[in-house]
Amino acid sequence: MTIGERRPWGTGRVVVLPASALDQTPILQRPALAHLSALSLSGSGLDDDALAAVARRASHLAVLDLDGALDITANGLVTALRIIGPTLRTLRIHGCPRIQLDDSALVRATRGPAALSLPALTSLSLRAQPTAKAVVPNTDAPNDDALPFLSDRAVVVLASAGHRHLWRLTMVGCPASALRSIAPYLHNVRYLWIRECPDIDAETCSAIAVGAQQLFSFHLHCPTLDDSALAQLAMDVPVAPGNVRRGGCLASVWDLDIEGAERLSDAGIRTACDALGNLRWIRLVDCPWLTDMSVLALPHARLHHVD
Question: Record's GO cellular component, any one (predicted)?
Answer without folding.
Answer: SCF ubiquitin ligase complex
